[in-house]
Write a structure and sequence with these properties.
This protein has 16 helices and no strands. It is mostly helical. The chain has one domain. The radius of gyration is 21 Å and the shape is globular.
């Protein structure tokens, strides 16, 4: 038996795998962030429409990502136990599952105008948001396929290429946005439609880049050979593990989507401030998502080796790193809220001061749930690594929707706290999820492997 790793060795492994993954998630989010910043400088109405349309896109995308996230622990476990054929089979069928899901999303993205009206959103913002998602929705297919390939590369610890491709995508998105949102370089001024075209273009370019890399640099894996042939057994395994992850993702992102709908009931300025606050908090959340991916890979590898001690010690280290990030974030949100919110607004916009004032209170509420949000996303990553997905799905559904959404409504509208009350409800739902998912991992998953 090999000697167990020390905590310092675990930390080096976590940082070696985690820094490129965190960087790639931050870069991926920077695509959305640049859309928000550039549309915020275009107009507050365009920003509010992107918040609404982008929320629908993200809800569909994150649900479909369940199949991509299922690929990660399956590939990590297969690779650590020497089952190379399973790496190919799982990746190919992850692409299949993602493609089928993307096709099923088209009615929702093409008919979004009716959906937004039924949710009680302002007619003008609803129309702009529908224009955005009708174009951006075509990017779900390449975006999900990119997620599958990234998951496989992460599980095989080839994270540098993921980072570089994503950074290039950010630069391309800024360039196309600059051209099409504002009408530069002799091109038409398209506003939110220009941002949507940029997003689709970037997703397609990222997919092509990753496919070329895998085909040329990793030919031994034959990842795309016979891609057109169904592998029903592997597809069933990806589906069984992936659908609970997708629904768990949906439960969480749905919690924030519901908050966006409720903020829309308060008005355009409140929705714009909410969108900015979400963008700021999501930047930090991407750090925890990257660390959660590390937790998934490391836990999957430990499971493949049957290494209970490695699972336990590795979990403690990655949780400690994420907790440290969360504590630092609390200080930033409480100390520098105007700096973060002001980045998204034109200094000459007459609504700027009002949006900043609203956003300041939302970031103060967000500071309350940083630690618990980190705990729940890291716990999810660890549970996915040991391929435990159904119980976490139930925990997420109850915490977010039986507690979080009702609490947001009661605090925001019943008690008249407005936007801060909505965000305090989010904090309560996230806290419950974090506590119960940590209990699930330490009370069941760790004990399932020998020490």
């Amino acid at each position: 038996m090999p000697r167990p790793l020390t905590y310092r060795q675990h930390l080096r492994a976590v940082l070696g795998l985690g820094l490129p993954l965190v960087g790639s998630h931050l870069a991926q989010f920077a695509i959305t962030l640049t859309d928000a910043v550039m549309l915020g400088w275009y107009s507050v109405e365009a920003l509010a429409a992107e918040v609404l349309g982008g929320t629908l896109f993200f809800v569909l995308f994150i649900m479909g990502s369940g199949f991509a996230w299922a690929v990660m622990p399956m590939v990590a476990t297969a690779a650590s136990s020497g089952e190379e054929a399973q790496v190919r089979r799982v990746t190919r069928m992850g692409l299949w599952a993602s493609a089928l899901f993307a096709l099923a999303c088209l009615p929702a993205t093409l008919g979004a105008a009716t959906l937004f009206r039924l949710m009680g959103q302002e007619p003008g913002i609803s129309a702009l948001a529908a224009d955005y998602i009708a174009i951006a929705g075509w990017g779900i297919l390449p975006a999900l396929m990119v997620m599958v390939i990234k998951s496989t590369l992460a599980a095989l610890e080839r994270t540098a290429v993921v980072l570089w491709v994503t950074l290039a995508a950010v630069a391309l998105n800024v360039l196309i946005n600059h051209a099409l949102i504002f009408g530069n370089y002799g091109l038409p001024e398209m506003g939110v439609r220009g941002a949507a075209i940029a997003s689709v273009s970037v997703n397609i370019a990222s997919l092509l880049a990753l496919v070329v890399y895998v085909a040329r640099v990793m030919p031994e894996h034959a990842m795309f050979s016979r891609l057109w042939r169904p592998d029903w057994e592997a597809l069933a395994r990806v589906f069984r593990l992936g659908w609970p992850i997708g629904l768990t993702n949906l439960a969480e992102v749905g919690l924030f989507a519901a908050s966006s709908v409720m903020m829309g009931w308060l008005g355009t300025l409140q929705l714009a401030a909410h969108g900015i606050a979400l963008q700021v908090t999501s930047v930090i959340f991407m750090v925890h998502v990257g660390l959660s991916n590390v937790a998934t890979v490391r836990a999957g590898q430990a499971q493949g080796r049957g290494d209970g001690r490695g699972l336990r010690d590795g979990a403690l280290v990655v949780l400690a790193v994420s907790g440290g990030v969360a504590v630092c974030t609390v200080g930033l949100f409480l100390g520098l809220p105007e700096l973060f919110i002001g980045l998204f607004l034109d200094p000459a916009d007459p609504a700027r001061d009002a949006v900043i004032a609203i956003g300041r209170t939302l970031l103060a509420a967000a500071a309350l749930f940083q630690v618990v949000d980190a705990a729940q996303v890291l716990s999810l990553g660890l549970l996915r690594g040991v391929q435990d997905t159904r119980v976490p799905m139930v925990i997420a559904g109850l915490s977010y929707w039986a507690v979080g959404v009702p609490a947001s409504y009661v605090l925001g509208f019943g008690l008249g706290l407005g936007g801060p009350g909505i965000w305090l409800g989010l904090a309560l739902g996230l806290a419950l999820a974090g506590v119960f998912m940590l209990w699930r991992f330490w009370g069941w998953s760790v004990r399932a492997l020998p020490a």
